[in-house]
Amino acid sequence: MKIVKEAEVRKQEILVAARELFIKKGYEQTSINDILKIVGIAKGTFYYYFTSKREVLEAIILDIVEEGARKAEKILKDKSIPLVNRIMMAIMAQAPEFEGSDKIKEELHKVENAKLERLYLRAMLKRMTPVLQEPVLEGIDRDIFHMEYPTECIESILLLGHMMFDCDAFQWKMEDYPRKIQAFLCNAERMLGTKEGELKEFIQMFGQLE
Amino acid sequence: MKIVKEAEVRKQEILVAARELFIKKGYEQTSINDILKIVGIAKGTFYYYFTSKREVLEAIILDIVEEGARKAEKILKDKSIPLVNRIMMAIMAQAPEFEGSDKIKEELHKVENAKLERLYLRAMLKRMTPVLQEPVLEGIDRDIFHMEYPTECIESILLLGHMMFDCDAFQWKMEDYPRKIQAFLCNAERMLGTKEGELKEFIQMFGQLE
């Protein structure tokens, strides 16, 4: 039991060191040796946990998904926020925007790394759909939401949010974003079947960015 | 003028031959020499038009987007179909499903080729959004659709349709599809702001697949 725990700790040490290096030096510029030096392990130990540097990056991406999901779960527990706002805030919060994530995000979004982006998207959809299931079903129970396909509604909102705002599928200009965010929230509202304008205050927050 | 036309014809010959080879033999198994033999040109001539086999595949993908857009435009002209059905049929028809496309689609969807998929998605969104603009604005004029953000509504429907049904973002099982298609049409209806059930008959067609 202790050995299992230590292995998990060691693996985490590698991931933490690698993430820091990828952010500071860039993924391409980081070698496995750089990682070994910081963690203070031999090459053999590294290869016990990972087969390549790429696999480390993939594990980091899954960690990012997990961190995002936890942020979302935390927001969803805050009953002081109206349900529909809470859901939209949770969706926005789970996107990787934390400090230093820019470099990893950049890595994720390089066209050459479209494979990583796909990995992120699939992992995120799988992890986040059940997270949102509960509050959406609560909203249906409380007569705030009205829909026949709750799972598919969540899937659609998550997918649109990710493709539009995290992954630049449309290559919009900076100045387009306030309108695009408003349109996204308006479409989310319609899919959830809220009263028209349920998210109005929330939507206006983004209008002020214009 | 004549020379320009001939260059365009030659380029098309290369694309037609390459597409046939990619479908028959697979992309990896096709060499530039295979293409040269069929078109009957020298290597230098090939490199006048393309820098690599990959570039040929990229050009084929842009052709596929163009073919899809033309199919959609044709359907949209058929005024005998109710407007909202016509729009959804156009969206479905533009997805690459033509004969022999399976091999190219397979190539497009291999995780290693996520870059190509991104290329397809961006080109498709750019080409298809204006195609659908006209019928959607017509629907607003005729009081069939009600929305504040027509462009963003079209973008969202195109994006969802592609990610869900052409690119397997969710890795759904075969038996999930009838429900997923129905949910997609229902969400599209809501974003377009039609009368609830405007697409009912259309949606039921997919129910019968269950």
Automatic annotation (TrEMBL), chains A, B:
Query: Coiled coil where?
Result: none
Under SUPFAM superfamilies, the record lists:
Homeodomain-like
Which Pfam families does the entry mention? Answer: TetR_C_39, TetR_N
* Keywords (A to Z) from UniProt: DNA-binding, Transcription, Transcription regulation
Which ranges carry the HTH tetR-type domain? 8-68
DNA-binding region listed in the record: 31-50
Matching entries from PROSITE patterns are given as: HTH_TETR_1, HTH_TETR_2
Please provide, alphabetically and separated by semicolons, the GO molecular function terms listed in this UniProt record.
Answer: DNA binding
Protein name, as recorded: Transcriptional regulator, TetR family
Q: Which organism is it from?
A: Anaerovirgula multivorans
Q: What is the lineage of its organism?
A: Bacteria, Bacillati, Bacillota, Clostridia, Peptostreptococcales
